[in-house]
Amino acid sequence: MYAKRNLGKYLMKKTFLISILALASTSAHAFDPKKISTQWQVNLSNVAIAADSKMLAFVNVEPQNNFIYVTDLEEKCSQGEKVNDLIWAVNGKSVWFRGNCFQGHPLMITKSKKGADFVFNEFLTKDSVKISNKVFTTDGFESAFKRIKAIQSDAL
């Protein structure tokens, strides 16, 4: 039980740190909004990112797990405020997401590995991915994913 609790804390801390990196790097480096909405890009911090209007998606690459983070910039929250778990339709399939408030916006991640695998597979195999009422391109997703994996494997 103790190990599970520590693993949960570790994953939440890791999620938060990755979120900071992802969001900070998007604000620090200018992206062409038209390009980011039509193709996945790897920014200067080696974070893959795509957007649809006011919603952003990030990919986290790990040896055993790959996660898609989603933040809706139209939604607001206060730092430290609890963000409720919610179910979003992902290409018509219900998927649980959990969240944290980060920089005034909820940052959501799938709650289960099964959900994460499903969402990730949708980005790998479909022409687009609809999350809630936003549609994300999958163009460039696989190459961005491979680029991040290559950068990580080459890192000292």
From TrEMBL:
The keyword Signal applies. It comes from the Bacteria. The lineage of its organism: Bacteria, Pseudomonadati, Pseudomonadota, Gammaproteobacteria, Vibrionales. It comes from Photobacterium kishitanii. This is Uncharacterized protein. Residues 1-30 form the signal peptide. Keywords: Signal.
